[in-house]
Amino acid sequence: MDLFVRQTEHNVNVCVVGGGLAGLCAAVAAARRGARVALMHDRPVLGGNASSEIRMWVCGARGANHRETGIIEEIQLENLYRNPAGNWSIWDTILYEKVRYEPNITLLLNCSCNQLQMDGRRIRSVTGWQLTTETRHTVRAKVFADCSGDSILAPLSGAEFRLGRESRDEFGEDIAPAQADKKTMGMSCLLQTREMSTPQPFVPPAWANVYRTDDDLPYRDHDVSQWQTNFWWIELGGESDAIHDTEELRDELLKIAMGVWDHIKNRGDHGADNWTLEWIGFLPGKRESRRCVGDHILTQNDVRDEGRFDDIVAYGGWPMDDHHPAGIRYPEEPTIFHPAPSPFGIPYRCLYSRNIENLFFAGRNISTTHTTLSSTRVMATCATLGQAVGTAAAIGVTNDLSPREVGQERIRDVQQMLLEDDCFLPGVQRDVSPLSKNAELIASAGDTDPLRDGWDRPISDAYNGWRADAGNWVEYRFASPQRMQNIRLVLDSDLNRRGVNCPCSYPLHVEPRRLPARLVKAFRLDARQPDGSWTLFHHEECNRRRLVRLPLEITASAIRLTIEETWGGEPAGLFSLEVR
Ligand SMILES: Cc1cc2nc3c(=O)[nH]c(=O)nc-3n(C[C@H](O)[C@H](O)[C@H](O)COP(=O)(O)OP(=O)(O)OC[C@H]3O[C@@H](n4cnc5c(N)ncnc54)[C@H](O)[C@@H]3O)c2cc1C
To answer: Which atom of ligand 1 is the closest one to the Cα of 18?
Structure first.
């Protein structure tokens, strides 16, 4: 044994490798559902492509009211509250605290997983090198979740994986190429810019590429007026090895990025005289590499059929946004947006390995074809896939079931827990507690029936909730005093709101971002005692959650929620009021 290297062992129920949004949500979901979790992540900050190291925007399903909820919504709302200027470092701290201060999670940052020990077809443990402490961490667990993007656990364990594009014939996908190949979408180093009050010169390094005229950057929007979008098209690597060539590709991407900025500043008028380069990414953000193979491979045809699976545990809804593998070297449109319905269901069988018995995966590496990955890869989708995996993993360790057995025996439990935790599963209704169902439900105004219909967001034309101005109340009345253990509220956080991500360009004058005007900020909960008197048992003054769950230990003949204030003065919305 090397005397200078420390060895540390951790024994947990669930080990997650990779702390992008998928891994983060998997770890938090499993921990909140009672599992002991270790999250091994090779970077100093969490969030993967959404972290300050890469700065990609979290996108998800398109269309009215399709925003992803659950843990990702909790994070986004907290970020709006704490980070009005859209600062990437503050965003990092919010992701960090979600994991670091979640009881039940051992967080191993700066720890790169590079070894694995097997027991037959099961993973016994994984080992990673923590560069800040010269420590080798070994994590033993019952189940493992590969959320590393590149699927590091697949080559280490022998889990089946795919890489590259399937042929059109293999799955009958008409947008796939005629011949299969090993090409992928590329990787990118992004730029971030800031407007100043005076002109800002830029001197390019000698090694920057030269783009003399706009014709050298065809179809790549780069005027200041177009900076509502970012520089995602500084892309390369789809024709190389998306894993082993990354360092060389980084060098090329930096040449391109500096060359693009030189072009904007010094070669023609792009409206950028007062703009300066604030930041450049040195860690390429990856779009595609290994995809693990599960019991089902999700295809373009599943997507087009809206993914109506019995074992749906998440959904997508981004178009099939298939970037050309040549990236910036391709002189035409860099991507094609093939339409996809929104939402489309993603089945549980895409989230665990076909041949390794205790391996889950979540994120861009789930079991899909290349064409389908071009939609499922967006990060709000990845986050909900992670939450599904974490929830299923916790159910599996509690009941001693493998990932496949969870799907065969407990899929309804997985779905109901996800709904309970405020995820949306198209077509699956949440069970409402008998106590809520059987009580009388009344309010100071409006129709209260939707509050116990098991749908917690607007769907098509149905609002599925109760809307009321501040000052209004809603109340459950029971035939006799009832003992209650908890109350669950789902509040309207405006699922159609825009501008939640930290920006890619910072103009001189920007309005601070705010929480949704209709989200309830202050409310009170009162209980009617068996003697008929009312007592306040909870007062919230600064709520910023959509899902509010409070433990109760009370016996009451009625319980009343009064809305006191919303964040922007709009009428409040409530989708669920439930007592148990
Ligand atoms: C330039 C670019 C633009 C994009 N545009 C968008 C967009 O606008 N909106 C959107 O939603 N999505 C976008 N995507 C796609 C999206 O960012 C990815 O598909 C998504 O990040 C995948 O999430 P993930 O959690 O699976 O992986 P990642 O975000 O890559 O996270 C995985 C993490 O695992 C870590 N890891 C890897 N190997 C190991 C190891 N051996 N040990 C420990 N940890 C490890 C990595 O450091 C990484 O942080 C874009 C991607 C790129 C590159």
So the answer is: 34
Peptide bond just before 343 cis, omega within 30 deg = yes
CA 335 to chain centre: 23
Residue identifier of the C-alpha nearest atom 48 of ligand 1: 48
Pick the atom of ligand 1 nearest to 188's CA: 1
Question: In the CATH hierarchy, which top-level class contains the domain 8-162+298-316+332-420?
Answer: alpha beta
Per-residue pLDDT of 236-256, as tens digits, reads 999 999 999 999 999 999 999
Q: Is 3 exposed, middle or buried (0-12, 13-18, 19+ CB in 10 A)?
A: exposed
What residue segments make up the domains of the chain, in order of their start? 8-162+298-316+332-420, 187-286, 434-579
Starting at the edge strand that comes first in sequence, how are the strands of the sheet with 275-280 ordered? Answer: 275-280, 191-195, 505-506
Q: Select 434-579's CATH number: 3.10.310.50, 3.30.365.10, 2.40.10.10, 2.60.120.260.
A: 2.60.120.260
Of the residues 15, 49, 322, which should be mutated to test ligand 1's pocket, given the most ligand atoms within 8 Å of the CB?
49
Question: Cα of 246 to ligand 1 centre, how many Å?
Answer: 14
For ligand 1, atom 9, the nearest C-alpha belongs to: 59
Find the 64 Cα to ligand 1 centroid distance in Å.
Answer: 26
Q: 40 CB less than 6 Å from ligand 1?
A: yes
Partners of 312 in the beta sheet? 347
The tens digit of pLDDT for each residue in 486-542 reads 999 999 999 999 878 998 889 998 889 999 999 999 999 999 998 899 999 999 999
127 and 42 Cβ atoms separated by less than 8 Å: no
- For 418-470, the pLDDT digits (tens) are 999 999 999 999 999 999 999 999 999 999 999 999 999 999 999 999 999 99
- pTM of the model as a whole: 0.97
Cβ–ligand 1 contact at 375 (below 6 Å): no
